[in-house]
Amino acid sequence: MKRGANVRHTVEVQPAELDLPSSSAYELESQEASWQFYMHLAEGLFYLGDRDACLKYVAKAVEEAGEAGRSDPRLAKSLNAMGVLHCNHGNFGGAERALKQAIAIYQNAPGRNDAELAQAYFNLAHAYKFQDRLEEAAAEYERALEITEAALGKDHPDVALVLDGLGEVYMALDRRSAALFAFRRSLSIKEAALGPDDWSTAVTLVHLGEFYMRGGRYSEAEPVLTRALAIKQRIVGRDDPSLAADLKRLGEVYSALHKYAEAESLFAYALEMLRKTLGPNHPDIVSNLHALAQTYREQARFTEAKKLLELSTAILEKAAGPERAESAVALEFYSEILRVLHLNAAGSLEPGYAL
């Protein structure tokens, strides 16, 4: 080789060993992505109110998770969601089957998630409560409470949610002392953890107010329900139609306390809200018409009560025919008012007489 000639060095390059995932790893990642997609899509559809489409995609998530094995925690999560949806659709048998499957998976899962297990018990208790299987509901709520306290601590807001459900069931079972303890403890937890003006705090105040109402303790119900209404009004505004039930409930308390002016104001306000939202002849406004008519009756304002009962009867008969049960109640009330008006006209009763 001549001096000065260009020398070309050849370097032999060894091929790198690429750490490529196996086909089974790809498959697992694909399953996880599909499952996540179906669950997120179902969640979005749930909050949009399309429960049928939501159930469809939760079923796909169940199918996807089931391919990874019958003990996969994702399958339990999907079944738990399916149980909630079945319960919302009134398919309580389907709800019970799905939730019991979820519970069995959670219980046997390695490194199990007790918070999710408690949630499944809570949802199963809900399903039993909606069917009036109250003793079974109480047992599942109690199990959910024990697990939630152990997993999250005794002062966690999730403990309060379980206590709310348990208090409702205790109240329905006439276990009044236990119900009152549950509601008061729930309220204490929520006030400390979420604040005194949180929506969830207002929900527990409503439960407590209804407890006092059922026991005829209207003087105690009044400040509790007044506070609940004020919290909700600060959050959604004074004219939100979702507050109609709260207005009616507090109006019933005022009526029982013979504060008729306050009761009449709240009943009329709730009625106005519902008429704007649902229309003037919707059957769901009838209970408010009856409540206002009852207040008129208590004040011996029978002619005004009669007009409202005529209207409510006409609405119900148009909606479902004269055989509807509520129509019968309205007609009985209506006939009573007519009898009083007739007797008043004949001079048989004093003008201020109230039945």
Q: Explain this structure to me?
A:
- The protein has 355 residues and is an all-alpha fold.
- Among the domains are: 34-112, Serine Threonine Protein Phosphatase 5, Tetratricopeptide repeat (Alpha Horseshoe), CATH 1.25.40.10; 132-215, Tetratricopeptide repeat domain (Serine Threonine Protein Phosphatase 5, Tetratricopeptide repeat, Alpha Horseshoe); 276-355.
- It contains 15 helices and no strands.
- It has helices spanning 23-48, 51-66, 73-88, 92-108, 114-130, 134-152, 157-172, 176-193, 199-214, 218-236, 244-256, 260-278, 286-298, 302-320, 325-346.
- It starts with 22 loop residues before the first helix and ends in a 9-residue tail after the last helix.
Structural features:
0% strand; disordered C terminus; disordered N terminus; mainly alpha; 355 residues
- Known CATH architecture of the domain at 132-215: Alpha Horseshoe
Q: Into which percentage range does the β-strand content fall?
A: under 5%
Distance between the termini: 128 Å
Total helix count? 15
Q: Report the principal-axis shape.
A: globular
Q: What is the average of the pLDDT values? A: 85
CATH topology of the domain at 132-215: Serine Threonine Protein Phosphatase 5, Tetratricopeptide repeat
Indicate the CATH class of the domain at 132-215: Mainly Alpha
